User: Which sequence fits this backbone?
């Protein structure tokens, strides 16, 4: 236990004073002892990676403990009642909610999409942490999908693209959405994915330098207006480029908007002021 727990709190020291988190690591590691993933790695790596994803979002200690325990009642002899007794009814309820979402079975793909979305939103109404843990669980599973069969890869990728990416978008967790979409594309359209990824990697340095330059130019414009603003830039992700290539029938080389810049201000008035200044500096296409 000490190894994974110590690694976790060294990366996320804000949880080091939580006895609840420490005990969740101990219980999870003991419960999953002797279990392995398809990759051959100890199973404990999965809940550990899930809670790293949750901690990166800044979730509370209850979420971290529930995330560490989310597979325990399903895959071990440690029951939901034991979670409630040794931790709290609140944590047990979250873990039970995640388990129920995992056990949803469908007859058709159409039913899967509609029913899964409905049940997830019902769960959200009760405790949104259930949904966020489920999203983190799916994200780590997608990151390690190489060890599944080709049929299972495509099934999980389609489900992720149809259900989990839109759900992450509705919750405003865009970094989940972007990664879900890219990982799904990797298995649904592997040739397109690797072609775009290769071209993006070959121009990454130039694009990052260009983003820094654009942010600097926009900062100069914003400062000239005397407006307080937060400016961020990022390269477009692979799936969004793929969609644009398909809908506009263009090649990668024919696309000009491979980066995105976001300016966040405090009021609608400031937003329009900056928009006008930016359009004066750069003519809209």
Assistant:
């Amino acid at each position: 236990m000490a190894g994974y727990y110590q690694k976790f709190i060294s990366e996320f020291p804000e949880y080091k004073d939580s006895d609840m988190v420490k005990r969740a690591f101990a219980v999870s590691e003991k419960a999953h002892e002797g279990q392995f993933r398809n990759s051959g790695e100890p199973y404990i790596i999965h809940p550990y990676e899930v809670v790293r994803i949750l901690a990166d979002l800044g979730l509370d200690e209850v979420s971290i403990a529930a995330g560490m325990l989310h597979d325990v009642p399903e895959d071990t002899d440690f029951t939901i009642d034991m979670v409630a007794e040794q931790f709290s009814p609140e944590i047990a309820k979250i873990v039970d909610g995640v388990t129920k979402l995992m056990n949803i079975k469908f007859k058709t793909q159409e039913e899967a999409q509609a029913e899964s979305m409905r049940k997830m939103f019902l769960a959200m109404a009760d405790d949104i942490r259930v949904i966020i843990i489920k999203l983190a669980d799916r994200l780590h599973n997608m990151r390690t999908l190489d060890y599944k069969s080709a049929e299972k890869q495509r099934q999980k990728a389609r489900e992720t693209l149809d259900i989990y990416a839109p759900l992450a978008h509705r919750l405003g967790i865009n970094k989940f959405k972007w990664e879900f979409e890219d990982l799904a594309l990797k298995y649904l359209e592997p040739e397109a994915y690797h072609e775009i990824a290769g071209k993006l990697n070959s121009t990454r340095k130039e694009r990052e330098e260009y983003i820094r330059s654009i942010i600097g130019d926009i900062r100069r414009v914003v400062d000239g207006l005397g407006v307080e603003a937060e400016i961020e830039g990022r390269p477009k992700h692979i799936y969004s480029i793929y969609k644009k290539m398909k809908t506009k029938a263009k090649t990668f080389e024919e696309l000009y908007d491979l980066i995105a810049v976001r300016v966040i201000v405090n009021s609608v008035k400031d937003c329009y002021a900056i928009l006008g200044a930016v359009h004066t500096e750069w003519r809209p296409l």
